[in-house]
């Protein structure tokens, strides 16, 4: 079985049989010059993408017409080129069975470096640290409704933690930082801070859509993750009977965590907890970019490529302590 | 009866008896050097303000301690000066009766140039133009809960329509512009646009507080009028059974109407109606500044003072058409 | 006859005879390594472009050397490829006769959705609404000198109304909005506002050059459309005997209509008419982007591509009203 | 005879007879509470200002009603205070005769450190260096129409060269720098550069108004000095028969000399001469702030006050070279 | 003994004998109208300031001429007013003895809430955690040269930790946060991060000057604290024999810690340690503003005054947990 | 011998023997799919670049593994294409001897239009004009340590004077302007200004690295040229015994010459010399862009391409003076 990158390295002038496991990322209807419609289907894995053009008279047409973006397929066919772009034929195609998905995930998309299960377990431990029952219940309830999405969604489409399960990794790392820092900042209420950290970006589970091929949802465009997270939290809190004072403050953390209005905050942070959460968010986001640059830079380079979020390339060599 | 400005023009070196009707704008507890507490009370009318210091042994102490900001009082006493500031004594003080308030309003605060009643009636006419019943019901229900505040609140604390009932004036004027422009922009859905115009700033009825002395409320600081308007609209719409598609769009108009993220929009306008409403808002806000500069500039000046929102002083003379 | 896009879809490995009608967009002299000069000629239609390299010994050399950018040609030859780029041979070439141009316009360039003639007639109607004779005469005279350019020039090179006759479409639409709004804003002088709307962007008829291939003219670079429009208006007004007071104000509308200095305004709007015209300009420009996104987005997409001027992709589906 | 500052230092509790020569800076009609009108007249010299209130029944009323801002008066009366502000009585007032103005100028307003006559003579020398006759004629003609204003107007209302004749000083200094630098920059046409330097800010002679009390004129507000300078130059050039190519370029220097659009440039500099003039303008403006800080900082300070245009206080001590 | 605020509350119309301990904040030479020089001396304590004018014939003249800003004096005299400003006479003045200074400090200036000694001891503990000897030696040596200034200087002149010993408080708090967070961010070298935190703002000990009356020093204006801290660290490191690799990185932390170039960073953070330190700096600076707002807001207010560094007033009430 | 551009124009379908002199610009280790490492080597001259892939079993592998970026090679082989990109074989490769480098320089990289030797001689003349011996010694010493780099480094990687020896050209041109302007600005100390001009960008000799293939050095990333120039100057000045006052000021010129903090200045210019040097830098940088646009624009164009640093395309035609 080959990765897409490997297929593209096969000799261009021969039609080589291949087999690959790929995600269907996008399927869109296009109109040919003669007005007949065709489907432009994009397949890919972590190493690259290719397009497959499927006309109405193809045996695969119905399959692709109804295909859900993000579905994983095993495809077979021969390599080919059309107008200088890699355009393999597809002779056989089948959905990869649910039970096998986990096995291929790593080759299909970039994932958080810590397994999802471990992250989830650790997160439960942090929730357990929230003492006030209605607050804990609010967090549990808001989260459980979106558990599936929350577990897979990236931390961002570009910028920091921009890979599968990146949001959960970022949230857990922020919980760790929060718990470490709370003893130093007496003026910050621990329960509110921890609940705020866990829920601050939950709206992204509604803003983004698609399991293996993330894009912005309709509500993501129209409302944005800040308001969606506020709405999800509000509903859960009302159900959990959270007091008005606490709810105002918890919502405020979510509404203000982006820091500056031009970065998408609805208001500026105006409680000790909101200032604290937005600063911890900023710290961990930036460190996430550092971590990613460190692990994705080839060994023979001293500096990573330019990291937009840092405004600089990162020196990736470890400091040398003289023996 | 004298205005505050008139009292300040009386001879400084005599204690002149006076009577005035004023709003209690602010009352705050302060600590004297000897650790005894006293109250610093601010009174004012449209023409100016003065401060009254009330110590614990004063017969008025309890009255001021429990006074509600924005209450109207009739006060009597003598003019006096303390450390060069106007500090009249107060020998008699009584609340102005509810029934008399209307009579004094004009001398106490600046008001919209159109009477509240007329504005409200005109607004009902615009609501009646909304055809889709659940949308009309949403607008009615969201508005009726905040009718009292909506009728008095200014359009902004500074900037445009910054006077009593300014928000309602601005809303009605936007309705007029909206109705005039709709036939020209087919791509804009009339019902959604009109509902959006009426509700776009409704959150200010929750963001601001105080009838005659407007400040930001706790929720104003923590959530901001954009999110508060969204929340008020959402609750009303769910009660009214508005469809999800329409609600998404109506909420989007409110969330995006401020235009730019740095001006407080939660998202950028991304539907024809939202782009339209935010542009009509901008137009009427700027014209509101023009109108205010025209009516508040002394007759002998060619230009108004610098208008911050326009970035220029305004030429207030009418164009001269040769006979 | 084929569009350029169609020619590019013909089999690459055969030389296929073709005939096409195309605009000569650009012809520039280049120097080959051996110091002999050649011409690099760019042809195109609405669907795409290709380049033709013409050496000094070619029979077409003189023709292309003297060719005017924006001329329409009928070309014949065979498809071919050079260094992987589409480089058809040209065996026969002839100018399309003036009388046939209209027939091909639609396939050569994108045009405003309303026919030029209708726009022009409607515009005359708006001019007729200007009561003050010298003002009407100013508008007529300024416009008539540039009628030909005004009728074809786009509203902008990128951004809003960026297609043939887009400027005239934008101007007419602004007239409509202006006339609809004037009854609502008493403080705005109708004659000045209407004249200002019609002339506000007239300078673009001098800033842009080329009928079918628009670029910035020398004066466009050196003076900009704001000053060019001011100059054109000033000359016409002096001829028409417009009074100094009215001319100052009319010129001010043109000089300030861009809104902000960094967007190219020479001064900030400082009369009621100037504030009004710049706001109506902003409204119609944004709505023009909405209209364009609506008509150019493929039917199967919910959202248009990202629209730079809106800062968002546009939701193109109509609202669904439950039956 | 006393300066205003000296008058303010006389004992407050006595009415001391005084005589002073002052500029009438501003006279505005105000309405008293009893609806009778009065005049608020501002007098001042270089050392300070005071206000004189003149009621309708005063013998000076007609005089002040018709007074021209910027007129110089000799006033006599007694010192007095009203509401803690210096409010002297005026028993005698007379216009200072034209022939005496020069004598008092220095104590009335801050002036350029070089005498006007010398600056003007030097400027004529620079004009003489322009070789191309129509260009020289353009400069002479544009300048001569505004000679009186040009000789007295400040370089700016705040910022650099903000004192009487500051514009002429700045222009002459730029000429010197221009002539010194031209031999180093071959690509800059000397005639155009010199003409551009001399005319670049000429529009300020129309933008500002008032001889001894400078404010923005009506045209200053509506058109701004960039466009006014362009218009003045254009008229002179057409009269002088300047060729179109040269006029385009000369106008471009004026339109672009402010450097950035947000600083008021109509277009960005796009010829060698325009880039050069805008850079020399920037250099001399900044050095003008340095010169002013050096001569206005008290001797015992190491640093001047914060200079807004430099973004820093200036170290005013000379470098110390060890003997 | 009275505070300055108390002196100002004494009856204005009597000359009351007083005694006060105050800091001489500023003494500057001024010239009177008659060209004789006098001294304008500013005295103050935490509660307020007053000015004393001392002419050449005064017995105190020599004393004030040679006085060092920031010296503490015990003064006696009588209250008085001149031109409505508090201008007490001084009959007796003497320097407060070194040994007494500590006793008066609290009433003279605002101090960090933690005693200097405790902060210093805690800081020594953090230095001890640095394992690499040359790095520890660098920190010790750089710090010991400026120990006196470092212990007293504020964290900033305005903004965060803007009170005596505020810099040391901020540094110690950052050390605590650093040590708490290091276990979570493996990619950050602990020794470098800790050394960077301790030295990051050390340059302020050279940028600011004056013990009890802080202003910017000459070098503060000319070089700024970032470069001064770099220079101090570099000298200490070379003496301590720190390796080039580690020195480059330590210097980089100091040069980049301000975050953005426009906030004064010489370069953008480009090592894991530099990103980390700048983020921890940001976190603790913002929390310092929160702490200050909490302890300086009167008890009867829900919100603090507007905090410029947060862009909002802070809600100072603690969250209410229902019993 | 062929340029790279010429090689790329040879027929694609034949393997043509070639010989070329090229710079090795970059050599990086990559990993193939089968985990074996290979080298990706980039060669180029002024006309273009190509890549050569060298596997471990190649006879050139060791040579390329140890190759220094910026070395000049004579290569022989045959033209070839791989995946449509020009990938010639290399059969013979040898270093070009030191003595021949000068001969090829012009075809390998773009150079300053004035020969290095002349620039250097002229610079020595300017140094000789510095009167104060320790200042002259500081300049000489700081420069001599970096003479080799200073002579070749570009003025910037992009933007102005971005070609070999561009920094020296820019420095010499600034010296000329400085010497021409000094007589006009008495307040500027000539010795400091000239020393400041010569050293202002010296740090770039440490910020950039590589003779024929310039990139940012490690220190360039971590410290930036402003701080590196400061450090180089400081060391030289201490050795030369420059007084503290003069050193503070010389360092300040270097630290502030970038003008604005966001452009990399460590502090804002706050001495007459620093303001002057930063303005002359700005002037010559902009004129350098003008000069480059003039000499690199093809003769048949009126305007250059868009020049980012000017924000406009430049009109490159000379003004036409009527005969």
Automatic annotation (TrEMBL), chains A, B, C, D, E, F:
It comes from the Bacteria. Pfam families: HD. Gene3D superfamilies: Hypothetical protein af1432. PROSITE patterns: HD (PS51831). Signal peptide: none annotated. One of its GO terms (biological process) is rRNA 3'-end processing. Keywords: Hydrolase. Transmembrane segments: none annotated. The keyword Transcription regulation does not apply. Residues 167-286 form the HD domain. One of its GO terms (molecular function) is hydrolase activity. PANTHER family: 3'-5' EXORIBONUCLEASE YHAM (PTHR37294). This is HD domain-containing protein. The lineage of its organism: Bacteria, Pseudomonadati, Verrucomicrobiota, Opitutia, Puniceicoccales.
